[in-house]
Amino acid sequence: MRPNQRVSSIPLSQTLALDARAKSMLAEGRDVINLSVGEPDFDSPAAVREAAKAVIDAGGVRYTPAAGTPSLRGAVAEHLTRSRATPFSPGQVTICHSAKHALSGALLTLTEPGDEVLLLLPAWVSYFEMVRFAGGSPVAVEPRADLGPDLDALLEAVTPRTRGIMLNSPCNPSGYVFTQREVAGLCELAREHDLWILSDEIYSRLVYDGAPYASPVSHGDDARARTVLVDGASKAFAMTGYRIGYLAASEEVASAVARLHSQLAGSPNAVGQHAFQAALVSEPDEVEVMAREFEARRTRLVGDLRALGLETPMPGGAFYVFSDVRPWADERGSDGFCEDLLEAEGVAAVPGSAFGMEGRVRFSYAASTDSLQAAVERLDRFLARRGRTGQFQESSPG
User: Fold this and answer.
1) CA-CA distance, 160 to 137, in Å (whole number)?
2) Which tops the pLDDT comparison, 79 or 23?
3) β-strand 227-232 against 196-200: which pairing, if any?
4) Domain annotation covers residue 263
5) Is residue 397 in some structural domain?
6) Cα 204–209–215 angle (5° rounding)?
7) pLDDT tens digits for 185-225?
8) Where residue 229 falls among pLDDT bands split at 50, 70, 90?
């Protein structure tokens, strides 16, 4: 008995693999600073915790409809109507086990065998494998030098087989936030070539410097009709373990995803749904506090990394920086850089190769200020020993 080829060909998520390795080293007694995983180091808001306990204590934890509870779908529709400045109805919302679950469900629903899906680099690690498993072919599109979208390159990548575009703003791993003009250009390209847009907006609440958030659904009726919006509770509400997300689309697509999930996954987590509804309705103050702390950490970390000589663009959102390590990389590239950094200094980071961009490394600043400062000090030692030749100049400790 062996796994089939489709499953055997799927690699383990590099971010989860690195997180598991870091946690294994910690369990062994190693001193590790884990900057590999995108998980807020804050507790979920009090309203979330209280709502979760209340529904458990009330004995109301039962199966829900596959598309989610009517009350949560209504709360999501109201939230989107306010935040995206365009009306949504509960029938256009499907609740999922997570944003990742919503993305995979959307791709399985929209993708025919052989379809090409354009991925704007750098792209989150799971996009490539999600598209492949859905039967499509991911087509990577290189960014501009500042890691923003190159719309000319995107246009050149369109072929008769192209069916969709995946958009992620703020971007994981770069933190780049698309401007209104860039989103408008992408929507126009999608209209001209009749493409759907899968917009991953999981970091939409974590935008800094007072910049407005741009979503395709806010750019007219045509863009709204061809967009599947994905969001969830994990990042902005620090609810990673609650495993709850959603997608919003046309009623036809939303109901099709719910029908698919009814067979493959059943109903979403009932406790997570109840807690997420409490978060959306109450809009807890803790979210803004967390966002401002991330913004301060971002500014400090970018300054520290630049002082070490690492070219690091200032991210406009999320909680990642994407540094250029090519002067210090050897023939193994960013993979080898991250392996050596973890073993030599106990700092876990994610190689740019995982996101389709060799030569860069993603550091998460969803970690305490003290941890980030210690990580910078260790990175300083690591770079000094390694030298700009990519080779260690002396044996590294432990």
Assistant:
1) 13
2) 79
3) parallel
4) yes
5) no
6) 30
7) 999 999 999 999 999 999 999 999 998 899 999 999 999 99
8) very high
In the chain, the number of structural domains is 2
Q: Which of 13, 104, 103, 40 shows the shortest CA–CA distance to 350?
A: 13
Q: Which of 253, 259, 251, 215 is nearest to 92 (CA)?
A: 251
The one-letter amino acid code at 367 reads A
DSSP-derived secondary structure letter, 207 = B
CB atoms within 10 A of CB 151: 17
Please state, as a whole number, how many other Cβ atoms lie within 10 Å of the Cβ of residue 134.
Answer: 20
CA dihedral 277, 280, 282, 288 (to 10 degrees): 140
Sequence-distant (6+) residues with CB within 8 A of 74 are 90
Q: Residue 302 CB: number of other CB atoms within 10 A?
A: 20
Choosing from 248, 282, 316, the residue where a domain stops is 282
Output the six-digit token pair for 33.
């600073």
- Using a 10 angstrom Cβ sphere, with 0-12 exposed, 13-18 middle and 19 or more buried, the burial of residue 339 is middle
Q: Nearest-5° angle of CA 266, CA 228, CA 239? A: 55
Domain range for 293 = 5-43+286-386
Same domain, yes or no: 181 and 158: yes
